[in-house]
Amino acid sequence: MKDIILNIEALIFASEEGISASDIKQVLQDVLAIDINKEEVLDFLGKIKLKYESEDTVFSLFLMNNQYQFLTKEIYHEAINHLQAHRDRKKLSQSALETLAIIAYRQPITKIEVEQIRGVNCDYSIQRLLEKDLVKIAGKAESIGKPLLYATSDQFMNHFGINSVKDLPQLKDIVAEENSIGDTIE
């Protein structure tokens, strides 16, 4: 029984997006060559949940969207959010932020078009944005050489708390009188 519980814990821990009880059942049957039904799996999951309810653990077993996953307990969310914010601030350079803004407002856009706007090579910035999953390859342009097209990713939307690129601030919202040089002519 302990072997089954440890295998279930390992499956949940290794599943980035979570794992369903039926998937756990199937893997246990395949790997351990045991006959187990879904109710028994649910019973083991209940025991694991109880095990991690202790104050001595920082995470617990959660069921979200019919998928089991280990998540940090709510009491530690503030510290984790602070760490993530600290890491996020350190990781994107000014050039990466400029590149990301150009891609966000002009998507889909090729690297060459981004470089024409910025006036410098953007290979490194685009690579970093791809690694951070803030931009994605959205296809190929129909121009000569079929260059890759870049667009913002779902991670970008989640990170900035927006539902679509239509929710991005408009330039008229950003440009204020104190940011202008000279007289405005109307």
Automatic annotation (TrEMBL):
One GO BP annotation of this record? cell division
Highest rank taxon of the organism:
Bacteria
Q: Which Pfam families match?
A: SMC_ScpB
Q: Which UniProt keywords apply?
A: Cell cycle, Cell division, Chromosome partition, Cytoplasm
- Gene3D superfamilies, from UniProt? Winged helix-like DNA-binding domain superfamily/Winged helix DNA-binding domain
Q: Which residues form a coiled coil?
A: none
NCBIfam families in the record, alphabetically?
SMC-Scp complex subunit ScpB (TIGR00281)
Q: What is this protein called?
A: SMC-Scp complex subunit ScpB
